[in-house]
Amino acid sequence: MPRSTAPRLRNRGHEAVDVRDIGLGTADDAVIALHARENDLCLVTRDKDFGDIRNYPPADYAGIVVIDLPEDTVAAGVLEILDLFLSRPEWLERLPKRLAIVETARVRFRPS
Description:
The protein has one domain (5-110). It contains four helices and four strands, in the order ααββααββ. By secondary structure, the protein is an alpha/beta fold. The protein has helices at residues 5-11, 29-38, 75-86, 89-94; strands spanning 43-45, 64-67, 99-102, 107-110. A four-stranded mixed beta sheet has the order 1-2-3-4, covered by helices on one side. 31% of the residues lie in helices and 13% in strands.
């Protein structure tokens, strides 16, 4: 995720922490997931591994948002899609205990 993601989330009124700022920038996914669970934080990531509900059951988390865009998408494009997601209250209301896969043209929630 772009460095500007956490400030963007905070500017929209959400609590946000960048894993790089708390010493978890190179941590295994499991360590990051544990931190999110223990602190009741929603994960916002481009790491598709977090979309595997067998390893990261959405019910165990405040929410998981996987931004699924082409690898060559620049930071501005990632933030644009994130802003679109954040601008839809009905999507945010559905997020607790769910996985949201955010793509260019759609958002899928699991479990439904």
